[in-house]
Structure formats: C-alpha cells, structure tokens
Amino acid sequence: MAGLITAAALVSACLGWGLALLRALGGRALLSPAEHAAYAAVLGMGTVGWLAFPVALIVGANGGAAALVAGGGLLMLALLRRDLRPDPTRPSVREGGGITPLTWLLLAAILAVAGLDLSAALVPPVDADSMAYHFALPKHFLGTGRIEFIPQAVEAAIPLLFHMTYMLALSLGGEPGLTLWCGLSAWFLPLAAFALARRHLDLDWSLALLVAVKSLPAVVYGSPAGQIEVRIAAMFLVAAILAARSLPLNAAGPAALAGLAAGFCGAAKYSGLLAPAVCGLILLGGIGTIRRALAFAVAALLAGGQWYAWNGLHTGDPLFPLLWGLVPYSAEAHWDETMTRAMQGTMAGELGVPKSLFWLLAYPFKATFDGMPIFESSRTGFGLLPVLLLPFAVAGWVRRGCPRGGELGCLGLACLLGYVLWFFGGASQRVRHFLPELIPLLLILMVAAARAVESRMALARPLAAGIALALLIQLGGQAVYSAFNLRHLLHGGSRDQYLTYNIAAYPVVQWLNTHLGSRDKAMLVERELIYLVDVPVHYAPPNDDGRIRLLEPLPPPSLFLGQLRAQGVTHVVIYSVTTDQPDLMHRQRVGLDGRMADLVDAGCANVQAVVESPPLLQSRTLRISDSDGLIKHYVVALERACSLDTTEAWGEARR
C-alpha cells in the first residue's frame, strides 16, 4: 500500500508542479484541456527531478527531501486544481466520430495493456541497466545519505534527472513505490500522444494511437524499468509541440516552456541534448525570433545544466569523458588515455551499420525486418505499425498535401532533424534510442492515413486491417513478455523465487546479503547484481572506472591492493564461465582472476566461498541460456593487513 500511495503522490506532485509552470509562463491558452493535464504531468516530472537534486544536496538524500519536493507539488495541485476544468475558450479537440463499438474495443485493449503493465510493476525489477545504475545509484545515494559524485563513465557520471525521481520514490515507498512510479510515469508518453492526437484525429483514431504507443516493444521494455528513453520521448514531444505553437506568437513564455522541456531532455541523458538543438532550430522561424530564442536558451540552460555543471565541477569535463584531451582533467576523474581508447573500442561495437547516407535511409527498414543484435530490435523495436501506415500516409499526402506548415510540419521537421543528428552523431544504434523521434512520426503517419481514408473510403478496410494486425502483434508480444509475471503474482511467489528465476547469479547476491554486513564492501563486475546487494558495493566496470584499475596491463599486486584498500573494498567477487574451468589458483594469471590469485599467494586474501549459479540468460522470456553447465563465483576476502600493504603503494593508489 505504501508503494501505491507513493506512486500516486508523485504523479499528483508532477501534475501540480506542471500546472504551476504552465500558469506562470502562459502555456495554458495554447492547450486543450486534455493536453493541459498531460503536458503538465510531463513538465512536472522534469521539475520534480530537477528540484530533488539541490534539495537532496542541502538536506540529504532521504525521505525528508522526497517529502519536501512531493509536498510542494501536492500544494501546487491543491491551489491550481481548477486549471484542469474544461474551458470553452481554449483550443478544442477534433469533432466527429463519437462513441462507437470500436471505441469500446479500444478501451478494452487499453485496460488489457494497463493490466499487463501493472503486472510488470508489481514484481521486482530485473532489467540489467536498472540493476547497474538506474536503480542502483538512487539506492546508493539513499544508503550514504547524500548525493555524491562517482567517477564512472556511462553509468554514474551522467545526467541523472529522472534518477532523482527514482530516488524519491524509493525513499518514500521502497521498491514497490519505485517500480509503481516507473510504471505510472511511463503512461505520461501515451497520454501526451493521445492528447495531441485529439487536436487532429477523432476519438477512435486517437485511442488507436494510444494503444499503439503504449504497446510498442521499446515502451513495454522500458516502462516498469528505469529506462530513460520512454520518459525522454514524452518530454521531447512536449518540447517540440510547444516550440511549434510558439512560432506565431511574439511571447517569451511559450518558448521558455519549450526550453524547459528540451532542457529536461538534456538533463536526463547525453543523447537528450538533441532536443534543445532540434527545438532551437525550429524556433528560428516565426516572429519575434530573438526574444523567443533568448527565452528558450535561458530556460533550456536552467533546466538542463545541473548535471553538466556537477560533472564539470568534479572532473573538469561537463560531458565526462567525451572532452578528454580538450579540457584539463582533475585527479578526481581517475581517467587517462588508455581508458579513452578502451571506451572508444566499446563504443565502436555499438554501431551495426556505417554512418552513411544510404544507411540513414535504410536503417529503419533494416532494424524492422532484419535487425542486427546490436540494434536490439527483436525486443525493443519499432513494431510494424510505422511501415504499415506509410503507404496510406503517402496516399494521404498525394491527395491532401504534406504538412509543410503548422505544428504537424514542425513535428515532422523535429523528427527528421532528430533522426539525422542521432544517426550521424549518436554513440549507439540501439533502436530504443530513436523512440523520442518515433512517437511524433507515428502521429504524423496516422493523421495522413486518416486523411487518405476521408478522401477515399476504399482504403478504410485495408488500413483498419493493417492497424489491427500491428496492434494484435504488439499486444501478443506484451502478453508473452508478461506471462511469467502474471503466473508469479497469481501463485503468490516470493521475491527470492522471482529473482532466482530471472537473475542467473542471484545465489551470489543471497550469499553476500547473508554473510556480509554494513562494515564490509564487495567489489563486483557483474552489473545486473549491483542493485540487489544490500551491503555496500563497489561496481567496477573495467573500461569506465579508473579507481580500481582492471584494464590490461593491471597494476602490480601491491598497487592493486592499495586501490582496493582506498575504495574500502573488503571482498572481491569474480566468476568463471563454467565449472569445468580450472579453479582460481590454477588458471592463467591474467586479468582480475590472476591478480586476486597473486594476492591469495601473498597472504593478502583468501577464498572465503565458492558459489555456483545457473548459466546467464540471453532471454528471460524465452529461457535461452548463454551456455550449459553452472557458473562458479569466487568470493575472495581481503586480509586486514599483509606484507604488500606499503606506504608507497597506498599513496600511489590514493593518487
């Protein structure tokens, strides 16, 4: 119950803070009542995350900070609740259609999606990214009682806007509050898309879009987890539409609202910096360009600059570590040229196709019909709907013209610019990173297809069949994805049972939580375990964190031990691929295994436990394993003191 109350309170707080922004900056007159509520929730989500950072710095990362931020939003909602009432003077929805049998069918589909979504929010999180940092970082901050800088590229020293909302949910409602908040906040995207669609489409078309968006594989994958793209997509949609509607106005307020939304995108993820660039280019048209551009820029900098200033303060690089070699780095960064080269090698593996004009055009079709593993399109893809809508949309454009002007034209421009910048400038070609641009594209295609049907009714049946097929496939995929969650909930399974089934190395977590205490600190390299370990943890990804050097060549044993001591590590968890490998002391002395064996030989460590677990899973849903046999984990405990503990090694490690 505490989790549900927490999630509901945070949603209400988002609504309150968003209403305050829309009232203060004059956005209310531009929006229909449905848009007003949906966009307020989206803007409020960014505001809650933005406020949580300075409040937690001042009062600490705890329930008090959460109560202050959420309480302020609830107060705003109480004061401004009348703003949600229908107003005949404000923009209205598209007339026509009304309630039909199809309406009820679509509402039933929405209820089915909501039920499947709820099942994912009521079970423990298992997504690897969430385990490694989306949820692990908020848990760490709450455990230490403060926001602290962690010099770890990709997974810690990054923009953390939405992670701050996770911290608030976790502090007030525990893990149920966290997962329910993630599940509910993921609905902001389809609701915002629905509200916008009602300006251009009748009720049935708009409901179909809502079902399509909420059941997209990329949205299903990211909804109950901490994946950022689902939330950035909502913010990008609001930023683009507010930028478009501010074009005919010689007023700073709407442009500032667009700047806040775009800035929140940048404050959530490095790739979110595309939003200020794209929306800024859109704002170069219209009247009052300089005034609007200045308001947009100031608002975007205010909303998005927090975490870049934080990174710059601690490392010297606001885009850590992207500006290595261009700006001076502080010692706190623990970064060097070797790590830069290693990270560049890792990033090269994120690209499945060359960055060329041909692949710019071919990538969406390749990702949809013949996706490469790095695209992850088999589980987080576009779905079939964009491709099925495309020929009907083209027919609509041939008959009615393309949306060159107005807000749909601006949305199309935002999609195009965002896609081009992402494809040529992005570090990864994972399909889900394109989600912010996909949602406006879906709306544009659906509007054009609807216009085609209005002009030629013969297209209605094949279009309806295509949409129905796409939605059935998406709903079927979500049902398969949720099947184990439903079985687990119906049979009243425990948290340990669920995690044992879904996390291959969960026996290691159980051992650590049982045998270690608050004075211990375990070093792990398996990212999917970090959040689940309840004792202090040091996560050590080799390419991203230089505090404990794991890149070859590893430092000598004395210096390596000094680095472990400097981070307070008392236990190191290492694993072999299968149990038929030689044991720790009889394998080749390379990497972390070899260095820990050296410490054991020197009397500085001992193998405290050997924990066996099932092989890693390539797919939890389909139960596909990486290999046969068991995985063997070694828990190596450091001795309190040994011959390798020298003043020189300690000083070198501290540097």
Describe this structure in words.
This protein folds into 2 domains: 2-476, no CATH class; 503-654, no CATH class. It has 27 helices and 7 strands. It has 655 residues and is mainly alpha-helical.
What profile does the largest beta sheet have?
5 strands, mixed
Q: What is the terminal separation in angstroms?
A: 48 Å
Shape: globular
- Given helix and strand content, the structural type is mainly alpha
Give descriptors for this structure:
27 helices, 655 residues, 2 domains, 5% strand, five-stranded mixed β-sheet, 60% helix, mainly alpha, two-stranded antiparallel ribbon
Give the helices and strands, then pairings.
Elements: H1 2-24, H2 33-59, H3 63-80, H4 101-121, H5 128-134, H6 136-144, H7 161-185, H8 188-197, H9 203-214, H10 217-222, H11 229-246, H12 252-268, H13 274-282, H14 289-304, H15 306-315, H16 337-348, H17 357-369, H18 377-380, H19 385-400, H20 406-425, H21 435-455, H22 460-490, H23 495-502, H24 506-515, E1 522-524, E2 537-539, H25 557-566, E3 571-576, H26 591-601, E4 605-613, E5 617-619, E6 624-625, E7 631-638, H27 647-654
Parallel strand pairs: 1-2, 1-3
Antiparallel strand pairs: 3-7, 4-7, 5-6
